[in-house]
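About this split. The held-out portion is used to measure sequence recovery: a designer receives only the structure tokens and must propose an amino acid at every position. Recovery is the fraction of positions where the proposal matches the reference. Here is one held-out target exactly as it appears in the evaluation file.
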């Protein structure tokens, strides 16, 4: 179960996005990025596809983290500013 509390939200019309900071509480282990994205988008009433988690910080042993999130107006504006991160190799 992931609970999200929005600390602040502001509009950045120059970049075509809203910028928000959230506190995320979770019960067991740090949630995966897609779980975070869906929970944060739901709390901000946004679509998960246009929600980008810029930073998520959790202190060791804590059941709480702080997220910096961008909610884009369109896929076009998101595509200009967000580059996909390459997938990590799972080779040992």
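Reference sequence for scoring:
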């Amino acid at each position: 179960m992931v609970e999200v509390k929005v600390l602040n939200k502001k509009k950045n019309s120059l970049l075509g996005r809203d910028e928000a900071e959230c506190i995320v509480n979770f019960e067991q282990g740090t949630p995966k990025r897609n779980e975070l994205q869906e929970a944060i988008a739901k709390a901000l009433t946004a679509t998960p596809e246009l929600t980008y988690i810029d930073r998520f910080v959790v202190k060791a042993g804590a059941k709480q983290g702080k997220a910096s999130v961008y909610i884009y107006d369109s896929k076009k504006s998101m595509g200009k500013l967000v580059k996909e991160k390459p997938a990590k190799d799972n080779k040992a």
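Annotator remark: The mean pLDDT is 87.
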